[in-house]
């Protein structure tokens, strides 16, 4: 039987907006750029909590731009492709991506609570990558056969959308594999659906010998608030390490002051800024791209204003590389 808290986040999830008509009724400023074609290419999905933070009269609201299927996505742009990181080449088993030597990524689910227009997995073959119970058993065997792997990342989709029971089972099974030391969870729910951080979830994840790291994903300081901070405190009290990753996005955070404010807001929530990614060139996201020189200028200005522990590492993924490339700036 589900608890009241589970029902709260599950009903919030069921109540997400998926039609452009409804989005434009709530945010009239979305209408001018809204595109059914783009929505059919990658579905619209956004929760009421996130929507409530958008200025209904501002067509350039940075939170709106992250979720609005726009006419500009209809253009084909050279270099922007379906699988910009060639992930299909590192997919030894359904649901498993093994790109870097010591860590693997499991796509527990293809479902998210919000659809981010710049997502590099927006065209990912999730249907072929839902491991299910037999698939997970094969993944555990793979991990036992690769003692060099010491960290598992649950990603997606959003791994916190699966049941507490499944998360607990996966955590228990991974803890039985001696070489696995860390379990990292990549989620956008900490800021978009913080009610998901229930006592039951914390119990499911934290009663383990594994070190648990939760990596949130926020791109703009307005995504954070007191409710997020309250749920972060509960995670911290239970020994979870909190980090954040962001993406450089034109129109959203292409300004050093916004990114400095993001780092400060994250720290108020006890989250450390981890990565600031250059955009992966996925088809449909070209309007978010920033020139290298502009990214460099912004990052240099951030360096001047932030202590080292609040400066995210600026990174770029290069398909086929053995690790992410740290870009940084000269003199930094
Ligand atoms: S996987 Fe993450 S970035 Fe991609 S759509 Fe889902 S929540 Fe957004």
Element layout with pairings:
Elements: H1 4-14, H2 20-26, H3 36-41, H4 48-51, H5 62-67, E1 96-100, E2 103-107, H6 132-145, E3 151-155, H7 164-175, E4 182-186, H8 189-192, H9 199-206, E5 211-217, H10 226-237, E6 241-247, H11 256-268, E7 272-277, H12 292-305, E8 313-316, E9 325-326
Parallel strand pairs: 2-3, 3-4, 4-5, 5-6, 6-7, 7-8
Antiparallel strand pairs: 1-2, 8-9
Helix pairs in contact: 7-9, 11-12
Bound molecules: iron/sulfur cluster (SF4).
How would you describe this protein?
This protein is of the alpha/beta class and 332 residues long. The radius of gyration is 19 Å and the shape is globular. The protein has helices at 4-14, 20-26, 36-41, 48-51, 62-67, 132-145, 164-175, 189-192, 199-206, 226-237, 256-268, 292-305, and strands at 96-100, 103-107, 151-155, 182-186, 211-217, 241-247, 272-277, 313-316, 325-326. The protein has one domain: Alpha-Beta Barrel (TIM Barrel). The chain has a 9-stranded mixed beta sheet. The structure holds iron/sulfur cluster (SF4). Iron/sulfur cluster binds at residues 112, 114-116, 119, 121, 156-158, 188, 217.
Helix vs. strand class: alpha/beta
CATH class: Alpha Beta
Instruction: Spell out the CATH superfamily.
Output: Aldolase class I
List the ions, cofactors and other small molecules found in this model.
Answer: iron/sulfur cluster
Gross geometry: globular
Number of spatially distinct domains:
1
Q: Between the first and last Cα atoms, what is the distance in angstroms?
A: 54 Å
Rg over alpha carbons: 19 Å
CATH fold-level name: TIM Barrel
Strand order of the largest sheet: 1-2-3-4-5-6-7-8-9
Number of strands: 9
Q: SSE order in H/E notation? A: HHHHHEEHEHEHHEHEHEHEE
Helical content band: 25-40%
Q: Quote the beta fraction.
A: 5-15%
Which stretches are low in confidence, meaning pLDDT under 50 for 5 or more residues running?
none
Taking all residues together, what is the mean pLDDT? 94
Helical stretch count? Answer: 12
Question: Could you say what the CATH architecture is?
Answer: Alpha-Beta Barrel
């Amino acid at each position: 039987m589900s608890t009241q808290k589970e029902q709260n986040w599950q009903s919030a999830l069921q109540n997400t907006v998926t039609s452009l008509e409804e989005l434009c009724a709530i945010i009239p400023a979305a209408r001018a750029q809204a595109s059914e074609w783009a929505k059919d290419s990658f579905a619209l999905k956004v929760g009421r909590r996130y929507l409530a933070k958008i200025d209904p009269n501002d067509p350039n609201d940075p939170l709106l731009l992250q979720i609005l299927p726009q006419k500009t996505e209809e253009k084909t742009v050279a270099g922007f492709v379906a699988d910009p990181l060639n992930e299909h080449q590192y997919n030894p088993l359904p649901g498993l991506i093994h790109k870097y030597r010591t860590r693997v990524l499991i796509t527990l689910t293809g479902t998210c609570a919000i659809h981010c227009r710049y997502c590099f997995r927006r065209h990912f073959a999730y249907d072929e990558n839902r491991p299910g119970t037999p698939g997970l058993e094969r993944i555990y065997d793979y991990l036992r056969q690769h003692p060099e792997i010491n960290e598992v990342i649950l990603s997606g989709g959003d791994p916190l959308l699966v049941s507490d029971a499944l998360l607990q089972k996966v955590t228990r099974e991974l803890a039985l594999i001696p070489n696995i030391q860390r379990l990292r969870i990549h989620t956008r729910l900490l800021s978009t659906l913080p009610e998901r951080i229930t006592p039951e979830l914390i119990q499911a994840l934290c009663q383990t010998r594994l070190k648990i790291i939760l990596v949130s994903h926020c791109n703009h300081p307005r995504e954070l608030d007191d409710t997020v901070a309250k749920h972060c405190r509960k995670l911290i009290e239970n020994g979870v390490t909190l980090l954040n990753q962001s993406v450089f996005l034109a129109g959203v955070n292409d300004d050093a002051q916004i990114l400095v404010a993001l780092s400060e807001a994250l720290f108020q929530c006890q989250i450390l800024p981890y990565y600031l990614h250059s955009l992966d060139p996925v088809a449909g996201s070209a309007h978010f791209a920033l020139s290298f020189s502009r990214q460099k200028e912004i990052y240099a200005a951030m360096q001047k204003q932030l202590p080292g522990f609040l400066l995210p590492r600026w990174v770029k993924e290069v398909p086929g590389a053995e690790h992410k490339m740290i870009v940084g700036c000269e003199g930094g």
